Amino acid sequence: MTMFLSKVINNISSFFVKKKKNGAGYLKSELSVQSLPGQSGHYPGRKSRLARLRQLFSRKKKTSYNNYSRPVNKRRLLVKGAGLTAAALVLLVGIVVGAKHLLPDNFEKLPIFQVSAITYSGNKTLSNENLREASGIILHQSSLVGLKCANVEARLAKVPWIAQAEVKKNWPSTVEISIVENVPQALLHSEGPDGNQLQYIDKNGHPFMAVKPGAEIDFPVITGLAEINDPVLQQKSLDEVLIFLEKINGNNPQLPAQSVSEIHLNQDGEMVVYLVEYPFPIFFGNSNTSKKYYRLVQVLKTLYKQKGKGSISQIEYIQMDYLNDKVLVAQTQSS
Prior knowledge:
Layout: H1 2-15, H2 49-58, E1 62-64, E2 69-71, H3 74-97, H4 99-102, E3 117-121, H5 128-135, H6 149-157, E4 162-170, E5 174-181, E6 186-192, E7 195-201, E8 207-210, E9 221-223, H7 231-248, E10 260-265, E11 271-275, E12 281-285, H8 289-305, E13 315-323, E14 326-331
Parallel strand pairs: 3-5, 6-9, 9-10, 12-13
Antiparallel strand pairs: 1-2, 4-5, 6-7, 7-8, 10-11, 11-12, 13-14
Helix pairs in contact: 1-3
């Protein structure tokens, strides 16, 4: 690449080199040949002014090149100008393509390209310092020249809380980090090598992180999913649970997400919901979850208004799939 650029530069330079005379001779325009005295017996007479003007206007336009003249060739100048422009473009492309090889070895160490600032967006759970550490970027040491955004994004993607990461360079010394965080929808109970464990799941039902001691656990807990042996039935049951989670996250005042304690699945894939403040079960069955949710909201709205006998504190269980379009609200025997 370097040899190629040198040839292009030489070609451009040769265009500007002025033409010189050859040897010690004279150009034709520099010679003035006149008759000597005695050859014709007298000096040649002067031309009249009219003849000189006629000769002046009939002569072809000329241009001077270092003490000699030649007719102007506009076409030749245009061709040379186009060639000069093309050569300059080739030179520019060569510099861009071969810039990496032309840069000095210590180019990355120039202070102007060292990362002096990082901007963050999209992070709510993770702090800016968490993201900086995960990125591997060291302020005032890492260089923007050698920084590969794809590598930084791959390192950030390893953080369980991060669902998606995008990294951009802002020359000469700033990095922009934008992320999309995983948002927990519920806690999934399962049995692992170390016994029972809880995992955060996202809106698609994918576990993305184990719950650590002291972490946020104010989410509904899903139990019984691992005990469903049929994979097809297991997935169908999980889909119904996700529909229910989507509805309660709408934060209807009668049935907000914070009021749900547990969502249990039996081996037949039927869903049973338990509330935080009341111990009775709510049987949802294994289908039409969205429709049953809106019916349950109306039932709870009515029960919350009642006092004494028939109030919600006297309920033994609620069966949402008792009959078609029917809801069974069972009370304790004492009520």
